[in-house]
Design a protein that fits this description.
Elements lengths: L4 H6 L9 E3 L2 H12 L17 E5 L4 E6 L2 E2 L7 E2 L7
Antiparallel strand pairs: 1-2, 2-3, 3-4, 3-5
Length: 88
Amino acid sequence: MPLSKEMLKILCCPVTKVPVKMLSEDKLKLVNELISKKAVRDIEGNPVEEQLSEAVITEDKQTIYRIDDDIPVMLVSSGIPGDQIENL
């Protein structure tokens, strides 16, 4: 079940407070392709190994946060910097 519009209105990056939006399917596919190539790291520099089923991205495209079991994981340590992904 996708996040409700009401939930998206209140969610923001825990660090910058920039609002988030759903990561589109084509961008999600792009990120997952890079994850499968071991080319994506989280904010702490650890490789991201698990594919994303859904995700939100800050409106400034700086950080991606995964959604697991319909719950946004808005932990700073698990954020994925957007600058490592071209054409995001």
